[in-house]
Every structure is written in C-alpha cells, then in structure tokens.
Amino acid sequence: MGCNSCSTNGLPKGCKSNGSCGVNGCDKLTVFDWLSDMELPAGQQAFDFVEVRFKNGRKEFYKNVNNIALQMGDLVAVEGNPGHDIGSVSLSGELVRFQMKKKGEKPDSKDQKKLYRKANQKDIDTWEQAREKEENTMLRTRQIAQDLKLMMKVSDVEYQGDNTKATFYYTADDRVDFRELIKILASEFRIRIEMRQIGTRQEAGRVGGIGSCGRELCCTTWLTDFRSVNTAAARYQQLSLNPQKLAGQCGKLKCCLNYELDTYLEALKDFPDTQEKLQTQKGEATFQKMDIFRRKLWYAYDASNVDWIALSLNTVKEIMSMNQQGKKPDSLEEMVEELPSTTPNYENVVGQDSVSRFDHKNKKRRKKRPQKRRKKGNRSGTGKGES
C-alpha cells in the first residue's frame, strides 16, 4: 500500500496512518531511528520524552507523563497554548535525548509541555475539519491585508488541533502594525489569533518546491539549520557570479553552495597566489583560470591574451621558484608537460564483436540416417512373395 500524500510505493516503516500521512507528506524532515533495534541495559528506563511533528515539519518535544507505548507515526494529543494540539510522533527513545541536547532543550525544565494521550476519533475529526479551513483562511487573510495596505505577505496558516487557535506565518521587510488586522481576523473566524514573522528561507521551507537540481528543496526535506552563505563560497568554487543561478527560491544564495566548500578549500591550499605573474624570456604571463581537482592552471602572455597555455600545478610552482632566484625560462611552451597519448581500450562486455552476429545463424546440419537394407523376398511393390 502506498502513501496517499507523496505517492510512494510501500507502507513506510513505523507508519500507523495506513498510508495516509497525518503531517502533510512523509518527506517533511523524516527521521530514521537507528537505535530502534537496540535494547536498553537492564534496569534502565526509556527516555520519557518524544518528538512530535506538526504541519510542514514543525517539531516540538513533549514529556510522556503517562508512559504511553508509542511508535513512530502515532497521532497524539499534546498540550497547546491554550487547549491541545494534534501531531504525529516522529521520534522516540534515546535519540530524542540527543536531539534535545542539540537544540538546547533541558528535560528537567518546568516549562516542558506534556503529552496527554493517543488521539481518539473525535480528536482526529476535529483536527481534519480545522485543516480543511487553512487554505481559505490564508486567502481571505491576504485579501484583508491588501485592503488594509499592509506591506506583508501571509505565506501559511496553521490551525491548532482543537480548532480554537490559528497561527499566521508572514514575511515582511519592515515592522508591520497588524493590530487592526488581528481584530478583523478574530471577529471573522472566531478563533484565537497568533502572528509569527519568519524569514524568506523559513518560508521556502514551509511552502516547499523543486530546486534547479530537479529535487525537492533541502530546507523542506532535511535541512534544519540555516547557515549564512556569501559570494566567497562561489568564488572559491570557480562559479560564475550570476545572481539568477546562485539564488534559490527564497531569493537568497543557495544553501548547497556550502556543501562542497570545505573540499575546495582543502584543495586550494596547494595552489600558489594567482595574482603573481610568471616571468619568462618571451614575456610576462597572467593567470586566466584553473581546474582545481585536475590541478591545472591556464596562463596567457600579456601581449596576446587569446592563446592560453595549460600548465600543471608542479610546473607553475617550478617557474615561480625560478623567478624568485632571478632565473627565467625561455617560454611557457617548453615547460608544458606532454602527456603520453593513450587510446582507450574498450572491453567487449557482450563477448561478440560482430555487429551482424544475428544475421547468419549457424544451423546444425542434420545427420543422415543410414537406410535399412530390404530383404530379397520383399523387393516387389506389394511386399508379398510369389507362390
């Protein structure tokens, strides 16, 4: 059975929603519990906190005060502000301890919220009714904000599980006075209103989308911490400083520019200063470009910038050391290392080189059977002897 939200084949491990995701997609910051098959030492109790996931990957920690047996995917009723909320258990056990430590949450704090119970059918029905109103509420809120001429964009609306409170996520460049907006929303929808401002990257993570790589956005599927990205990361990787190619859907620089940055920085430690010119008897040569992982650099004479000469990294270092000693090679051409030309030897995987091997089939010749000798008395056509 497949998941109805993301159309994946097979029931996800630990999913108790029978293929119907209760958190708007199985790919929203999913977690693999690699400690699920390991047993605790004798006498040690399981960690009494669970991680609960809500709409669009929002996660919070709750204390399991009643010691309810829970599994990943269970819908639970948790403490809200006020009332209660409905979410799905995304993680339980010892991994929750590590997650709370990573995010600076203290288990012994008095401010930790509680997990009440597993969600019953009434809780689920109320929660589904609240979710059905989210899109219409968001469109109506945008219209009201436009009528009030507020410079803000309402990107998402999330109802609480008990249908008594709604959180409005918005983005704005400057400070917005939305007191009149809250009065109109409270009188029209008859619920408690909470306005929460988020950044453009958080907005892209909540809304989702497909990146230029053809896959879902990293901030939607797995990325949780948004590190600062600057144009220096693109320069180190020899990328074109084109804002249209380097910017993501949020309008900021793509987070993936930092993924391979450490590898490039490690490789660039062996390269010399590209601002330094190479001195030869033929003239000075200026750096043009480089291939970091092939360890090659291209230089061109100042007199003719059209002809680029490819040099290996060791050759460039050798020329620079000669220049420091006051020596100059005759030209860069004589310093080019000629690599032996090798013809690729492609192996015939099939084992048959002939393209027309199917045209002429080798037919097995049938062996002629030896004819049996007839008896002398049966030479006539009737096969009967004379009387």
Beta-strand content: 15-25%
Number of domains: 4
Radius of gyration: 37 Å
Low-confidence stretches: 4-10, 12-17, 19-25, 380-387
Walk across the major sheet and give the strand order. Answer: 1-2-5-3-4
The profile of the biggest β sheet is: 5 strands, mixed, barrel
- Global mean pLDDT: 83
Q: Output the helix-strand order.
A: EEEEHEHHEEHEHHHHHEEEEH
- Helical segment tally? 10
What's the overall geometry? Answer: extended
- Total strand segments: 12
Helix content: 10-25%
Structural class: alpha+beta
Span between termini: 88 Å
Account of the 3D structure:
The chain has 387 residues and is of the alpha+beta class. The chain has four domains: 118 residues, no CATH class; 74 residues, GMP Synthetase, Chain A, domain 3 (2-Layer Sandwich); 41 residues, no CATH class; 64 residues, SH3 type barrels (Roll). The protein is 22% helix and 18% strand. The chain contains ten helices and twelve strands. The protein has a five-stranded mixed beta barrel. Strand 10 and strand 11 form a beta hairpin. Helix 3 crosses helix 4. The longest helix is centred in the middle third of the chain and has 14 residues. It is extended and about 85 Å long. 19% of the residues are buried.
Feature tags:
10 helices; 4 domains; five-stranded mixed beta barrel; 22% helix; extended; 12 strands
Give a short synopsis of this structure:
By secondary structure, this protein is of the alpha+beta class. The chain has helices at residues 94-102, 121-132, 134-147, 179-189, 200-207, 218-221, 231-236, 243-246, 261-267, 313-324, and strands spanning 49-53, 59-63, 75-79, 84-92, 113-118, 153-159, 165-171, 192-197, 278-279, 284-291, 296-301, 309-312.
